[in-house]
Amino acid sequence: MIRQFGLGEFVFLLEGARWTIVLSLLAFTVGGALGLAVALRRTSKWKMLRFIMAIYIQMFQGTPLLVQLFFVYFGLPLLGFKVDVWVALTIGLSLHTSAFLGEIWRGSIQAVPAGQNEAAQALGIGYVHRMVDVVLPQAFRIGLPATISFLVNLIKGTALAALLGLTELTRSGQLMANITFQPLQVYGAGSAHLFLHLPTPDLLQCTDRTASPRRAVIKNT
Amino acid sequence: MNYTFDFAPVVSAWPMLLQGVLGTLRMSSLSMVFGLSLGIVFMLMRMSKQAGMRAIAIGYIEMIRNTPILVQVFFVFFGMPAIGIRLSGEQAAILAMTLNCAAYAAEIVRGGVQSIRPGQIEAGRALGLQTRDIYRFIVLRPAIRAVYPALCSQFILLMLNSSLVSSVSAEELTYFAQTLDLQTFRSFEIYLTLGVIYLLLSQFFSIALGVIGRVYFSYPAK
């Protein structure tokens, strides 16, 4: 029997969206932490460290996300780790995120005027405090738009989980298309993704607004 | 880790991988050309004086930019037959990638067009150029030159994203790799090789696009 594409089917899609959100959040948190480490190594004094990180970033920017996910998914069992699909996906997406955010944040760290860093050094502030209290807060504001647009890309990237068999938004769409034989409506509803993304530009404006007054203060004093 | 690596099945399947590379190159270059052309059309609509045109273009661009390319590919391949448009895997892949690329290209080129100062266009008009020539030589070409690096990275991203169309049986690199995987079960070696090939392909595209840019945008210092 062929089912109609009704409310129940739409709710099934939304349940898939839960995985999309969980995966994105996990990947963004873990990948963000790793990305910060990558960005700091990328701007470090040691040439070797910068070089290694450049290769790391190039590796992830030069291959498709799908291949990276396949690689982690099939590669981990070879190293003796038996992991669930979602763990493999989280690891793959986090590594991907770390490389991209690392490069974005490297750019924003370098965009902070060198005088800030030098002044902090002249005041005798150590590396950790120089970064945490002086450079990174300013770099954060500069890198914010690019970070959010990468976040949008990341949420879209979780759609690839469907190809590894995790029932997130796109996979539940495939299932529904098979059950209802109404792929047009189902994939049209797959634009539920759109609703996940629409808040992000608002978020961007909002954070921009909260960030600007501080920038004004810095300029005036 | 007690796993013996065996690249022999991958190496002996090189004709298949080569066919895949050619497929990827063909589909992504076609989508880049079509996508840029369609993108320029959408850019013109986006900057048009009529509110209706603008609304259509904004709606389209937001729709494409905020949904995953995988969903777009599925929509074209599985969804469009419902309204009577039946495409082969490769046609669907090219169409989906073109539509995707067009939205991004429209936004990127719009950035370039906005960087053209009005004085340039007025100067063109003062020299008696036709509107068409003003658009072509004074607006579009310098605009694309200004945003060429961004456009290139978008193109390379498109090439990498073309790995997704293997899911609708378009015969490109990932499709053949998956076929090979099913035949030999050497997953790790195959996807490692695949990663290396994509890395080389993206380097190739970045060099090739750089050369095209240098030849086409070398004015006025020629």
Jot down its keywords:
heterodimer; A: 221 residues; mainly alpha; 10 helices; B: 222 residues; MetI-like fold; 77% helix
Describe the protein:
The complex is a heterodimer of chains A (221) and B (222). With 221 residues, chain A is mostly helical. Chain A has one domain (7-220): MetI-like fold, CATH 1.10.3720. In chain A, 81% of the residues lie in helices and 0% in strands. Chain A has ten helices and no strands. Chain A has helices at 7-42, 47-61, 65-78, 85-111, 114-122, 127-157, 169-180, 183-189, 192-197, 199-220. Chain A is elongated. The N and C termini of chain A lie far apart (72 Å). The model of chain A is unreliable at 212-221 (pLDDT under 50). Chain B is an all-alpha fold and 222 residues long. Chain B has one domain (25-216): Orthogonal Bundle (MetI-like fold). Chain B contains ten helices and no strands. Chain B has helices at 8-12, 14-46, 51-65, 69-79, 89-114, 118-126, 131-146, 148-161, 173-184, 187-216. In chain B, α2 runs antiparallel to α9 (173-184). The longest helix of chain B has 33 residues, at 14-46. The model of chain B has no long low-confidence stretch (mean pLDDT 89).
